[in-house]
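example protein:
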Amino acid sequence: MTQSEAQRTETFAFMHRENFLGRSGGAGMQRWDYRGYRWEAIRPADGEPPMHVTASCTECDTVAELQVLPPGGLRRQRALMLAFSLLGVLVLVAGLVMAGIAIPIADDSALPDAQRDDATAVAVTGVIMVMVGLTVAWTFFLKREAQIGVTGRGAGAAGLAKHVVTRVDDGPAPE
């Protein structure tokens, strides 16, 4: 193994979710139990195509076809998630402005009913935009932070998928 390959070598864990329903983790939280194994992959250099990896689950014998992205691919993936998150913030701000302008108009009893009804519709639309924008921004921000550069069926989000791939830094094996 060359020095450049050694620098690009990363350790991942392919983990199987053991419980069907989340266990109580206290204060309305759910806890998921995983069992898995470590595997090493040499992340491709920038400009190279993604490396295809087959991971087999030791618990249920499921085979997952995964791709390990090069550093540039990981940066692009994270930049895309950031762009979606910023788009959500833009929708949130537009909704705040719409609601902020329309609510005083809808509340003004001196104006004709038709104008107040129109302002009420704009205010409701603005409030909905705030909720959607906040949800989109938060979801994609968290997704961006969780990106490790391994994609494919079987590399799902914890709690949602039967299998999850995580990056293993140092420490004990995930059991």
Strands lie at 9-17, 23-26, 29-31, 34-42, 51-56, 63-68, 150-151, 163-167. The chain has two domains: 3-69+149-167, 75-144. DSSP finds three helices and eight strands in the chain. Confidence is low (pLDDT under 50) at residues 171-175.
